[in-house]
Amino acid sequence: LSLIRSTAFLNAYVTVAEETALKQAEESEKRYRRGQPLGVLDGIPIAVKDNFNTAGIETTCASNMLKGYISPYNATVVQKLLDQGAVLLGKTNLDEFAMGSGSTDGIFGPVRNPWSYSRQYKEKTLPKSHSENEESNWVITGGSSGGSAAAVSSFTCFAALGSDTGGSTRNPAAHCGVVGLKPTYGLISRHGLIPLVNSMDVPGILTRCVDDAAVVLGSLAGHDPKDSTTIQDTFKPFELPNWIDVSKLCIGIPKEYHAPGLSSEILALWSKAADLFKDAGAKVIEVSLPHTRYSIVCYHVLCTAEVASNMARFDGLEYGYRADMNKSTESMYAATRREGFNDVVRGRILSGNYFLLKQNYENYFIKAQKVRRLIANDFVNVFGSGVDILLTPTTLTDAVPYMEFIKEDNRTRSAQDDILTQAVNMAGLPAISIPTALSKRGLPVGLQFIGHSFQEKQLLTVAKWFEKQVKFPMIQLEEVKRHECSIFQHQKSVT
Amino acid sequence: ETVTVAVLDHLEHLALVDFRNAEGVERLQKAIQFADQLHEVNTEGIQPMDSVLEDRCLYLREDDVTEGNCTKELLKNAREKIEEYFVAPPGNIPLPKLEERDTFLQGS
């Protein structure tokens, strides 16, 4: 908790649940003394992205629409963690309603990448005056689960929950040097995860190593009667082997992921990674996913359409912000939504409604659904031809400085940054970003592995082998002086 | 081909969200332009995909009441309520027409 306080300038947490966390920790200690821990997660501190409902603790989605909203129930994944004795430290910051790829567009302000304050990054930046450096050079976490990624990366929690609709867990994982797992759609319950795109959303897991991700996955996966989109199959939690043989594997390198804008550094790392597998005896082949470049456009239409529907529930009547307008129901709804949502959210709602108009439905929405099938089929074809795992970059570049990031608008940024992660959500496949190496600027770069549906064990096994090979360095966080900054004062303890 | 004011007005009615300013309208224009790239793809004979789980059965659980009786909890989050009712302003009154509404579109 004190580490959270001393790293408050990162703005990773929206709410710190100090009292309840201490109580949970106390009870966990009692259980350990009795020799009766609830499981391997008993007493382990975790953080949860602020778009998961948490009973008694504010859930805001970083939006004015839900500021002050105290949920009466826990999301299934939160409940599962608490049932295992995990200690919920708090709710982490994000882009408003998880719309964005920088964790910069929420009402609580942007999240700062802990690596901005690492020795590794500072060594590589031009020497200016010390404080001037930090204020203008800090880099983004990526998004939208930036708070969760920053929390794990800065050691304030053991694991964190994010969400992944277009790459929102893998993108910040890559930028913050942590492991980001996007499970197969249908494996983990979405009950209580405030929805963005019902057909693509999944809860994401952020940890410092692959073994930890497997542990958390083990406690979260499985059918939930409260979420009809979870599959019925029994999930068997697994431990990853320590000795892994990759020589029997076929690794696919999709050529379309050599996308415009991919930095030469990351291209080189990607190539080096492929060589690692080759040298270990695996078969490494180039493959093609021809519709990759349409994935972002397709996502744009399907996402805005589902958002238009999902955001309709926010009308001020039953929960959340309510405007003072009383003339009529419709005008109250309109005023509430005008005041409660930011530009990004409003923009997506309006776009979505446009694509869903009768005159546009066939040409945009249905068309996008057809293109989605083509994208999903690309993966089916490649996996059906003997490829076990795909290896791709996660992001086009390392994390950019905040001052540079905000020069472009949210939609442009999302379209650029989601290019390598989005197609996976279209197809519902599992994927994981593994921290691979540091860039020339001293910032983390991650590579992505994509697996067959519901084959998380194989995916994580390969990821663990890779993690062992690359030996990604630990972040060297300098002793940071307390930043006196008014925008951080929102961070509060829940009593 | 720009979106007509009539359509913009219609969208504001449907979404109950406003464009706010010229930037908002421009945002929609760009979004449509961006989406138009979809038409480059040949989707002849392709079925639309609703869900990646389309090959599986959707199961229904038993129609048994397993939880409830949480009226107080649920009402806690509402700003305006009376007894066990959520209070809404009068319904059946449509949003004022473009000319009478306080909307940026009026100027167009």
Automatic annotation (TrEMBL), chain A:
The UniProt record lists the keyword DNA-binding: no
Keyword ATP-binding: yes
Transmembrane segments: none
InterPro entries on file: Amidase, Amidase_dom, AS_sf, GatA
GO process terms (BP): glutaminyl-tRNAGln biosynthesis via transamidation; mitochondrial translation
Any one GO molecular function term: ATP binding
Gene3D superfamilies according to UniProt: Amidase signature (AS) domain
Keywords linked to the UniProt accession: ATP-binding, Ligase, Mitochondrion, Nucleotide-binding, Protein biosynthesis
GO cellular component term, pick one: mitochondrion
Domain Amidase: 10-460
Name recorded for this polypeptide: Amidase domain-containing protein
Lineage of the organism: Eukaryota, Metazoa, Chordata, Craniata, Vertebrata
TrEMBL record, chain B:
Name this protein carries in UniProt: GATC amidotransferase
GO BP field: glutaminyl-tRNAGln biosynthesis via transamidation; mitochondrial translation; regulation of translational fidelity
One Pfam family hit: GatC
PANTHER family, A to Z: GLUTAMYL-TRNA(GLN) AMIDOTRANSFERASE SUBUNIT C, MITOCHONDRIAL
InterPro entries linked: Asp/Glu-ADT_sf_sub_c (IPR036113), GatC (IPR003837)
GO cellular component: glutamyl-tRNA(Gln) amidotransferase complex; mitochondrion
